[in-house]
Specification:
Layout: H1 11-22, E1 33-34, E2 37-39, E3 52-55, E4 60-62, E5 65-66, E6 72-78, E7 138-139, E8 144-145, H2 157-175, H3 178-181, H4 187-190, H5 198-209, E9 229-231, E10 237-246, E11 252-266, E12 274-286, E13 300-309, E14 338-339, H6 348-351, E15 356-359
Parallel strand pairs: 6-13, 8-10, 14-15
Antiparallel strand pairs: 1-5, 2-4, 3-15, 7-10, 9-11, 10-11, 11-12, 12-13
């Protein structure tokens, strides 16, 4: 790993380091930064005591982009207006579905949303994923499908395989690590990001130190305030896939699209279970060190987009803030379309819409 990162144990990345130090024809280029657009979050509105609310950004605002192709930041926020009561313990444990058989890995974009149960069971401490399609999903990193590697761009087949493994390691460190979920600093995840992208590094440091609308750590990391909520069991359900192609300057560009389902309950109070659902699309570039200034074992961020259900609307706290049944006070149904947070059949960008919609399930 590069400066401030983890060590790189295998010979593939040792060779990467030697090549980086040796240089090549022409000086490597430091990843550039230029302004792009980012969607603005809506203010949270109360909703009916049954059902879920989905809040979507109504219009673009200023954002950031990094690297030669630009880094696009898109935020799509879905917030529950009501969640079913239940009882739960631990940091993330699974449950049963009507069909108990686990789903095969997602190797390509599905044709439509998963089937929806009528009057499905409510989550419980023993089954926090009850009534949710996530009950059939894999646990943790097992739900992130990696394709077979092949020689691409400047990398051999073995090097692409290593890059894919490290891509998944980043996703685990940013969205599944127990310490990060408790709100601690995502040090391991940050070590994967190219330190020679100064705008990215400055953004992450500001977002973790003093989060606000422009500097939101939730764009890349899943974090809850441990003083407010605690996990239900020790499993996060996941479903997603990783793809790759040759990118700019012969780089290996890796695209990730993963949905994470976090069941939580209040630290103090009743035994109700709430689920927060986060879907992220992150694109990263494993660059040729002869063409781009980069540390071995790190990638340059190209883009990221996030779609959150029951994580807080107009939330600038730096933490996911799930809502519980008692938080709902009115019967306002929202002014946007119904949205299924488990529907992975369309890109996040196509789900963007005006107004405040209603999530069809949790």
């Amino acid at each position: 790993m590069g400066k401030g990162g983890a060590s790189v144990p295998d010979e593939e990345w040792e060779r990467f380091l030697r090549e980086s130090e040796a240089g090549g024809a022409g000086a490597p280029v430091e990843p550039s930064a230029r302004a792009r657009t980012v969607t603005r979050r809506l203010k949270e509105e109360p909703g009916p005591p049954r059902g879920w609310r989905a809040h979507q950004p109504p219009r673009p605002r200023r954002g950031r982009s990094w690297y030669a192709a630009g880094l696009t930041v898109v935020v799509v926020l879905l917030v529950a207006v009501a969640v079913a009561p239940g009882r739960i313990t631990g940091w993330f444990g699974g449950g049963d579905a009507v069909d108990p058989l686990p789903l095969a890995a997602e190797s390509e974009r599905p044709d439509g949303p998963p089937a929806q149960e009528a009057d499905g069971p409510l989550p419980t401490p023993e089954e926090p994923f009850a009534g949710s399609p996530a009950a059939r999903w894999a646990d943790g990193e097992a739900g992130i499908h990696l394709p077979a590697p092949r020689a691409t761009g400047w990398m051999s087949e073995a090097e692409v395989g290593t890059a894919l493994d490290r891509t998944r390691d980043f996703l685990v460190a940013s969205s599944l690590d127990a310490a990060v979920l408790r709100g601690e600093r995502p040090t391991k995840a940050m070590a994967f990001i190219n330190p020679h992208q100064p705008d990215v590094q400055d953004y992450v440091r500001r977002a973790l130190r003093a989060p606000d609308r422009e500097n939101d750590p939730l764009l890349l990391f899943s974090r809850f305030r441990s003083a407010d909520v605690r996990p239900a069991g020790d499993v996060v359900k996941t479903r997603g896939r990783v793809t790759f192609r040759e990118g700019e300057k012969g780089a290996v560009e890796v695209s990730t699209d993963v949905t994470y389902v976090y069941p939580v309950m209040r630290v103090s109070g009743d035994d109700e279970v709430a689920r927060t659902i986060v879907r992220r699309e992150v694109v990263m570039s494993w660059d040729d060190p002869e063409k781009i200034v980069i540390e071995p074992g790190t990638f340059s961020l190209v883009s990221y987009k996030v779609d959150t259900t029951n994580g807080g609307c107009d939330n600038s706290t730096g933490y996911l803030t799930p809502a519980f049944l008692a938080d709902r006070t009115t019967a306002d149904g929202g002014d946007g379309p119904a949205v299924d947070p488990y529907d992975r059949s369309t890109p996040i960008e196509e789900r963007m819409r005006e107004g405040c919609g209603t999530a069809t399930r949790s």
